[in-house]
Specification:
By secondary structure, this protein is α/β, with parallel strands linked by helices. Helices cover about 30% and strands about 20% of the residues. α1 (about 20-25) crosses α7 (about 205-215) and α2 runs parallel beside α3. It is globular and about 45 Å long. Bound molecules: D-xylitol-5-phosphate (DX5) and zinc ion. Zinc ion binds near residues 9, 67, 174 and 194. Belongs to the ribulose-phosphate 3-epimerase family.
């Protein structure tokens, strides 16, 4: 089985001291850092782009798990690769050429991810499996942290796990992940867990470490 990954989303961090927050959460035991990029078009919120990713790259060597909630994504893939993303995830709904986007990401030497909104069925990835390193199952509608977990996505994780068989693909879940929801997701086949509000609560490194441990143990 794939190794267990906790990927805190800095969407819930203090953006005025985002570098220190990244360093603190990695010191607190984060495996990856999840970077939520939003364009105000694909999702109804705006966050940050390649310059911020590049600036954060100086604070840690941890894997940068970059979740692009932007459409179109293709014109920006090279910029995110250059900025220091290790995994670049595009949404299946973000354009008509998912297969080409994944080819482009692999061509840039990065790991390629595909994300599915809660309303999108898993079969859209079937003919892309040989180009995919990670499937990101959204368990909330993307755009904001702190939303309620959508239960139906546990079954989607189970179906994706069956679909990928023994291919070396991570299954990551994003949205409303907490000690209460993580167990069922792991049982269904997910191995990587994004958490924003459940990690960045309380003040600083000690609190983050306790929050990460609680998710890991659950
Ligand atoms: C939602 C983002 C998530 C979000 C998760 O659009 O993709 O990464 O920050 O936040 P929580 O864990 O609070 O649901
Ligand atoms: Zn995300």
């Amino acid at each position: 089985d794939r190794s267990l990954v906790i990927a805190p989303s800095i969407l819930s961090a203090d953006f005025s001291r985002i570098g220190e927050e990244v360093q603190d959460v990695v010191d607190a035991g984060a495996d990856w850092v999840h970077l939520d990029v939003m364009d105000g078009h694909f999702v109804p919120n705006i966050t940050f782009g390649p310059p911020v990713v590049k600036a954060l790259r100086r604070w840690t060597d941890a894997t940068f798990d970059c979740h692009l909630m932007i459409a179109p994504a293709d014109p920006y893939l090279a910029a995110f690769a250059d900025a220091g993303c290790d995994i670049i995830t595009v949404h299946a709904e973000a354009g008509p050429h998912l297969h080409r986007s994944l080819q482009t990401i692999r061509g840039l030497g990065k790991k390629a991810g595909v994300s599915l909104n809660p309303g999108t069925p898993e079969n859209v990835i079937e003919y892309c499996l040989d180009l995919i390193d990670l499937v990101l199952v959204m368990s909330v509608n993307p755009g904001f942290g702190g939303q309620k977990f959508i239960e139906s996505q546990v079954e989607k994780v189970r179906r994706i796990k069956a679909m990928i068989g023994d291919r070396p693909i991570d299954i990551e879940v994003d949205g409303g992940v907490s000690p209460d929801t993580v167990g069922a997701l792991a049982k269904a086949g997910a191995n990587a867990f994004v958490a924003g509000s459940a990690v960045f609560k309380g003040d600083g490194k000690q609190a983050y470490a306790a929050n990460i441990s609680a998710i890991r143990d659950a």
